[in-house]
Specification:
The structure holds 2 protein chains of 2 kinds. By secondary structure, chain A is mainly beta. Chain A is built from no helices and 11 strands. Helix content of chain B is about 5%, strand content about 55%. Chain B is built from 1 helix and 11 strands; from the N terminus they run βββββββββαββ. Chain B starts with a strand and ends with a strand. Classes of the chains: A mainly beta, B mainly beta. At the A-B interface, β5, β9 and β10 of A face β5, β9 and β10 of B.
């Protein structure tokens, strides 16, 4: 059974700092990996999707990498801003179908 | 806005009540999903419907009863719930679901609604 773990569970940083969120998964037979953002009381917004054949994806200040063989992904946020404060979720789609398995998330607070 | 709406946004119900959650998508998608998000736990898939047919039931207790009358609407009927069922219930949709679909991002990417915060007293 696929398990997804995110470290740290919570992170508080000053504005302007570069930071890294970590995600690991137990079964490397994945189709893709996604990073989502969730604001309090709201649904999920997809940030980046990396297909299993890719190594990384970039969108603005966000960069996500994937090392499928070691079962790891990182989300790098450059020059963090207070508006980046949210919970970041990692999810993998298994090759057996479109089922997504989620991690517990990292709650990020960027202080002005 | 993602094109997926959920009502109500907040719901408080007693253990003997019967209530329903509603999800509607305006994206022309064929697949719809119910997820449960409890405190300190990962998001859990509950049900998947594809072309109005239930294709996934993740061992969900029978006190949760899904209904999909058409590809745009998904309901979750609730009865005799327990306090531990208190959670954020999220609905999502995607163009299609399953191994046979054309495997590009537009086909399988899921769009989430804002969720219903359910409290069972």
């Amino acid at each position: 059974k696929q398990e997804v773990t995110q470290i740290p569970a919570a992170l508080s940083v000053p504005e302007g700092e570069n930071l890294v969120l970590n995600c690991s998964f137990t079964d490397s037979a994945i189709y893709n990996l996604q990073w989502f953002r969730q604001d309090p009381g709201k649904g999920l917004t997809s940030l980046l999707l990396i297909q299993s054949s890719q190594r990384e994806q970039t969108s603005g200040r966000l960069n996500a990498s994937l090392d499928k063989s070691s079962g790891r992904s990182t989300l790098y946020i450059a020059a963090s801003q207070p508006g980046d404060s949210a919970t970041y979720l990692c999810a993998v789609e298994e090759t057996s179908g479109s089922r997504l398995t989620f991690g517990e998330g990292t709650q990020l607070t960027v202080n002005p | 806005e993602t094109g997926v709406t959920q009502t109500p946004r907040h719901l408080v119900m007693g253990m003997t009540n019967k209530k329903s959650l509603k999800c509607e998508q305006h994206l022309g998608h064929n697949a719809m999903y119910w997820y449960k998000q409890s405190a300190k736990k990962p998001l859990e898939l509950m049900f998947v419907y594809n072309f109005k047919e239930q294709t996934e039931n993740n061992s969900v207790p029978s006190r949760f009863s899904p209904e999909c009358p058409n590809s745009s609407h998904l309901f979750l009927h609730l009865h005799t719930l327990q306090p531990e069922d208190s959670a954020l219930y999220l609905c999502a949709s995607s163009q299609d679901y399953g191994l046979w679909v054309r495997r590009d991002r537009e086909t399988y990417e899921q769009y989430f609604g804002p969720g219903t915060r359910l409290t069972v007293t």
